[in-house]
Design goal:
Elements: E1 2-9, E2 12-19, E3 27-36, H1 39-45, E4 53-54, E5 59-66, E6 78-81, E7 90-94, E8 98-100, H2 114-125, E9 134-137, H3 141-149, E10 158-161, H4 165-173, E11 178-180, H5 187-195, E12 199-204, H6 211-218, E13 219-227, H7 239-245, E14 248-251, H8 260-273, E15 282-287, H9 291-300, E16 307-311
Parallel strand pairs: 9-10, 9-12, 10-11, 12-13, 13-14, 15-16
Antiparallel strand pairs: 1-2, 1-4, 3-5, 3-7, 3-16, 5-6, 6-8
Helix pairs in contact: 2-3, 2-8
């Protein structure tokens, strides 16, 4: 059988014909229904990260075949997954990266689970303690997932920072106590005014150039600065201030996790319980036939764009 897959390179996203793979031992073959567009995919499209291959790691679909030794899912199950390449009509992944979702799911896009797994890892990795005041810098898709997953039963205040007021409104809807726009005032004074001090934990979730300096100013001496956003270009960071303030610098990329499959399974459970609400976050859906338009719009980062998904 032949299928279509999306290949990315600088300024180009195009469909190519591929052979439908057959599952080996412990593998699951999935017919794709949706796959989220990650910022990592956009970086490839923009030429910031080199690659000319099929990509996509935020897949959701239906099991069509399983390899020897697979007993956690069976043909016909609706599933969400880690890994890929899921920008394709069909893709293979290891059975450990597959979790069942309800049979009555109609909108597959709402069950994209790799980003919520990253949020679970980000919360765990930030080592938030009882009473901690937490500042989230960047209220894009991932920052808003972090706010949704924040352990509100133990935290102190949650402060959200973003340069777009509509994102800050969503942050407050999802549980932030205060929302500040650094483009409209001094963020350090604003955070100090709301908290009466610096934050115990600052999570930099934007990945924007230069934000690690502001994050350093916002966190208290001895506090934690979590680098959650992907800073794809190397930056100069204030190591002297990090030293002087005795900060704990945490880099909560997926590889930071002790067990990312556990984070994934926990994220799927939280989706099932409604902790993660992706409906207001997935703002754009594109058919795979229109993939060039999808990546062009995603890369332009319009005000109304939060998260895009390719559907199949």
């Amino acid at each position: 059988m032949k299928a279509q897959a999306i290949f990315l390179s600088k300024g180009e996203a195009k469909l190519r014909e591929i052979e439908v793979p057959r599952p080996g031992r412990s593998e699951v073959l999935i017919e794709t229904k949706a796959c989220g567009i990650c910022m990592g995919d956009i970086y490839v499209y923009e030429g910031m990260v080199p690659s000319e291959r099929a990509m996509g790691h935020e897949g959701v679909g239906v099991v069509v075949d399983v390899g020897e030794g697979v007993n956690n899912v069976r043909c016909g199950d609706k599933v969400t997954t880690l890994g890929g390449p899921a920008f394709a009509d069909y893709y293979l992944t290891d059975h450990r990266n597959v979790a069942k979702i309800p049979d009555d799911v109609g909108d597959f896009t709402l069950w994209i689970s790799e980003p919520p797994a990253c949020a679970v890892n980000g919360i765990r990795g930030s080592e938030i303690q009882i009473g901690d005041d937490v500042c989230i810098m960047g209220c894009g898709y991932m920052g808003l997932l972090l706010i949704q997953a924040m352990p509100r039963n133990i935290t102190g205040n949650i402060v959200a920072l973003d340069i777009r007021d509509e994102r800050l409104a969503l942050a407050k809807r999802f549980g932030a106590d205060f929302a500040l726009n650094p483009a409209k005032g001094d963020a350090v004074e604003g955070v100090h005014g709301h908290l009466g001090d610096e934050a115990d934990v600052v999570i930099e979730a934007s990945g924007a150039h230069g934000t690690l300096g502001l994050a350093t100013e916002l966190v208290r001496p001895g506090g934690k600065l979590t680098i959650f956003g992907r800073h794809v270009m190397d930056e100069v960071v204030p190591t002297e201030k990090w030293h002087g303030k005795g900060l704990r610098i945490l880099n909560t990329a997926p590889a930071f996790s002790v067990d990312f499959n556990r984070d994934f399974r926990d994220a799927v459970r939280l989706l099932g319980r409604g902790v993660f609400d992706q409906k207001p976050l997935i703002t754009h859906r594109f058919p795979n036939e229109d993939v060039q338009t999808a990546f062009k719009i995603a890369a332009e980062r319009h005000v109304d764009y939060i998260k895009g998904v390719i559907t199949f």
